[in-house]
What does this fold into?
Amino acid sequence: MTIPIVLESHENRSYNITIDSLSKLSFDNNVAIITNPTVAGHHLETLLSKVTAPNLQIVMVPDGEEYKTLHTVEDVLNQLFEYKFDRKSILIAFGGGVIGDMTGFTASLYQRGIDFIQIPTTLLAQVDASVGGKTGVNNKFGKNLIGAFYQPKAVYIDPAFLVTLPPREFAAGVAEMIKVAVTFDKEYFSFLQNADLHDLETLKKAIGKSVTIKANVVNQDEKEMGIRAALNYGHTFGHVIENETGYTKYLHGEAVAIGMVMANRLSVELGLLTSDEELQIKTILDKMNLPTDYYINDVDAFYEHFFLDKKSAKNKIKFILPKGIGDHVISSDISEDVVKKVLKTFGAR
Ligand code: ADP
Ligand code: ZN
It folds into this structure.
């Protein structure tokens, strides 16, 4: 299955996402595979059996979000200079979101920009980071605050790489699939309700659907001026949860799962979602082994934390609220009282 990503304003940056078992990839130029020891340990041999290039290098970066820094990017850049890479050289991102974000950013910088290809190996990176062209690193001021929109030349998604993924990481990816189903596609939601995602064919279909939905959204709104904001369903709350728990307790997708439960309750409060629909969403999150509960110790502090998010422009909090299952509304005008009333139902005094 091939999904074209057509960026309306920039035809030359359009590319294809292929979802299938990885085929042979032959290059005429220098190629560097950027990966980490975890992913390499499981799958590098497979990848190397598929890739041919006149000068093929492997660049290892340490595994972990804490290494998603300018420092690591500079290390990679230095290695590329040492390998005498030129402007026609190509980077292959082989790993999860961390590897993808850093490789894309490095590609955008090397001699003002070289091509890169993504071969995502986590479910989250396959369904989420593979579309949208967001690249970057973290710094002491926050996550992804340094970066660029930089599109890959191609993305190859092979669900077979996911067999070694730890179950929590897998579930975290499923959260982003549920996210797009709830906000955009009721039929896909029903499909997920009944799907056995450990069946490779079913998983492939589900990934394809998620990628297609996200691609449609991003094609319409590459720089997140409008509809793309809907992809932040669950994230407004989720970012606060990640922040409050120091980015250690929950994986991103897990925090988003709880965030969706919170957004749903706000939707019910506003009459946009029925209690039955709310329950259906919670049930699927539970079934996928995602967390759905969180104890808010201090509602006022939680509320203040919304404003730390770089997406809360001009002190307005943008809420993405499901409107039934398969649709949503985006609102920046929900009163503080209503939001706090909902937050109080999450265990606060
Ligand atoms: P994400 O893709 O969720 O943003 P990471 O890039 O940090 O997050 O990947 C999560 C963890 O899973 C990392 O430790 C990474 O090395 C590991 N990982 C990535 N792909 C695989 C895989 N196919 N099998 C096992 N572990 C993997
Ligand atoms: Zn996300």
